[in-house]
Amino acid sequence: MNISTFPPIGTSGQAWGEKERDEWRTRQVKQRSYTDEVVGAIDRLHGAFDVAQYGQIEYAPDHYPLFAVRNRDWHADMPIALVTGGVHGYETSGVHGALRFLERHAAQYAGRINLLVAPCISPWAYERIHRWNADAIDPNRSFREGSPAAESAALMALVAPFRDRIVVHIDLHETTDSDESEFRPALAARDGKPFEPGTIPDGFYLCADSESPEPVFQQAVIEAVGRVTHIAPADPDGTIIGSPVVAPGVIEYDYRKLGLCGGISNARYRTTTEVYPDSPRATPAQCDEAQATAVRAAIDFALAHP
């Protein structure tokens, strides 16, 4: 059983206003360093990759440069693989899995496909191990025109010139026990709605785009990751986090309707990973490797099925 750890803010049944958001913000405490853990790792890539700052997030007194990494032998006539991590800052393996891919595996794709990697979309949330940004907005429901989330708007601006050249996009996420104990209760409180308890799957799974599911592609990624960590089984009702399981370890969402990061390009092959770092059957290194393996499997499939 998951017990809510979210402290009450505001009045039950009433959506938050600015006062409640301010109260929530004052409770968020920096727990780790984006500069040391992420920017430091990106700095070590300069010798082998082109690194560019594509934006800056300002939450006074803090400011966070946003970085994208791409292969040095970029070819204007070559298709692009897009990798994104840390849209939800608390989902650690999404960030470090993207960096692990760059450090250990990206070189093998030289001359075969362009790589564009944004390892940490939400640095303020990364430091506070949170799902939302400093305005209590979920960036992964904000990838749409006129986005209220600066993190989402910056990534969309980065990707816009390449939308039609991206052939594969893999967005790296986690599902954690804190989703049920903290973030879903917080969402209900913020929106003035009752909290409805759910379940947390034990294992890795994928969320495909219901508008372009590409089931053979999804299964290729699942099969590759299954050699690294365990795949989440369906709940007794045939669902994972309340969504019908359409194939082993795969559910579907409508990316663009929900404003998800996976919908920002016109890639034929797109998927969202979900690692379960709280499982007693998985280590942090295993979670990072699962993410990097998913990236490799996605790109390999796209190259084999142009």
UniProtKB/TrEMBL annotation:
Peptidase M14 domain: residues covered: 30-306
Region span, Disordered: 1-28
GO molecular function list: metallocarboxypeptidase activity; zinc ion binding
Biased composition (Basic and acidic residues): 17-26
CDD domains documented for this protein: M14_REP34-like
Biological process according to GO: proteolysis
Domain of life: Bacteria
InterPro entries (UniProt xref): Peptidase_M14
Family: Belongs to the peptidase M14 family.
Record protein name field: Succinylglutamate desuccinylase/aspartoacylase family protein
Organism whose genome encodes this protein: Aerolutibacter ruishenii
Upper classification of the organism: Bacteria, Pseudomonadati, Pseudomonadota, Gammaproteobacteria, Lysobacterales
